[in-house]
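Figure S7 source data.
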Amino acid sequence: MNPRLKGAVRQSDTLGRLGGDEFIVLLRALSERNNAVDISENLLKIFREPFQIDGRELILTLSIGISIYPENGNCASDLLRNADTAMYQAKALGRNTYSFFTKEMNEVMLRRFEIEEHLNSALARNEFEVYYQPKFDVKNESIVGAEALLRWHNPILGNVTPDEFIPIAEHTGVIVHIGKYVFEQALEFLNEWKNVNQRDYTMAVNLSPRQFRDKELINFIKKSLSDTGTKPDRLEFEITEGVLMIGNSYIDDALDELNELGVKLSMDDFGTGYSSLSYLRKYSFDTLKIDRSFINGITLNKEDCNLVKSTIAMAHSLDMLVVAEGVEMREQLTLLEKLGCDLVQGYYFSRPIPAKEMIDFQHTTNH
Ligand code: C2E
Ligand code: CA
Ligand code: CA
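Tokens for the predicted calcium ion complex:
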């Protein structure tokens, strides 16, 4: 057993290795919760010191989950499961920390498992529908295209929001299949939309980091484009910085191939992550989407307004188009036009709507 672990616990405690990188510490006769806190903090402190292995320095992170008998379980298996749940929470908090198990945590986990289970068969059961939110030219308020946004209705769970199920689909990997479905639907719709209105639109599809690990991704996109006779420059992929931060060469390769194909790339949620300028320099993005949290404040405070103004200037100097997302009010639109923003999207014009409504939308409004 690792001497560091041994050094952190009391003589009367039990140490065990559950497997892989998971260990268990059994603390007997806890007089109060504080004992568990003290020991956890001690463990964290001890692990901050790097390990020397084969002449190399290794730094490990530690995440500790704590469950207490009898409040958090009467038997070993319940206590273990709940400690595990608490450990996930500690990891989610950024590692190198500890978490006590709580009832709420259990609810979150149960909900997660439930979603995961239903998500696996959702495609086969036809529970998904792709909605479309139109994008407008700021100057003349005409529709230039749309963003495809996925909706999920499950007979038991009801409507589940993408903010809840997309991260889970990412985690389990089903996003690869779901993403293909969204893409196929979106291309099919784009063609129908174009034919009905005799106009050229663009279609934006969100791509998750996990989808880049799919070796078939590029071929699949190529084939779908040629099967549907879609011009590549009508298609745009929205990706967040999270994709670029992974820093793997297969992502760079995929982005290069997408560029070569002639499809457009859009940096999504700009302003929320690191908003790294080096990414903008290194990769050739065609569009920058300013996150709605900034658009929300532009008419309310000078800071947001100035940030958006500078972001637009920077994007334009790098030859990128700027899309403002989350435009909800006329005043925001007016200000964005003054600031030189190119395209807008938001509830002021339309929420994401089903394909049928999107086709009618064009006919029934004067935008
Ligand atoms: P996102 O890509 O940033 O999409 C914009 C989100 O803002 C959408 O939420 C949209 O409905 C919402 N929105 C648009 N205009 C307004 C507005 O004026 N006010 C407010 N308050 N909200 C507005 P939605 O559809 O719930 O999607 C949430 C997120 O889920 C998306 O954020 C995207 O990251 C992800 N997502 C949705 N569909 C897909 C998909 O097919 N594939 C992948 N990978 N991710 C998806
Ligand atoms: Ca998006
Ligand atoms: Ca966003």
